[in-house]
Amino acid sequence: MEGVRCISSTFVQAANHKPKPSQGKETDQHTFIHHLRTSLSHTLDHFPPLAGCLATTKHDDETISFFIDCNNAGALFIHAEADGVTVSDIVKPVYVSSIVYSFFPLNGMKNSDGIFKPLLGVQVTELVDGVLIGCTINHSVVDGSSFWHFGNSWSEISRGASHLSRSPIFQCSFFNSMNYPIQIPQSLIKHVHEKSILAAPLTKCNWQFIAIKVER
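The structure assignment produced for this chain is given below.
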């Protein structure tokens, strides 16, 4: 059942690293963090669902459906420091280090947890020679394309844009034969909450692409 698969999967994550601004100047660093927090807040003005939460509606046939409550509950923003960790420690190894997961908020959350957890979490971690921005979003709210659209929009706002070059679209498209809202048996929802998701015994690798390759 597609609805169950969607709410039982985990949040999606992506990160970006930048050089430290004016290294050695604590005031400049605090200004940079404040700028990220403020620009994120302004970006969420254009993406109100990400500042909301999941809510549910119970139906008479013992099913439940989910919807996004744009209640402006807010996103999670964390500022952290990783003493002794460099950018190279993260991107150079062939295999992803376990420390990388500590740079993301909302680790291990299922999409259904969006009822009581933020739909968006951002962690800005100061490294020895840079800053890593880790972003976690509820996968039932965004797909890969909308995830990067949000990231690009935040980048535009951060650089001083007064409006977005491409506004988000919040209309959902369904096949003509699909009834919505999608109603899921409550017994399956209870099973999702009780069942723990075990990490697959896989080793993850780092992939790096130079700018000229990406442009092609």
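Interim note for the steering committee: The helical segments are 2-8, 26-44, 87-91, 144-158, 186-194, 211-215. DSSP finds six helices and seven strands in the chain.
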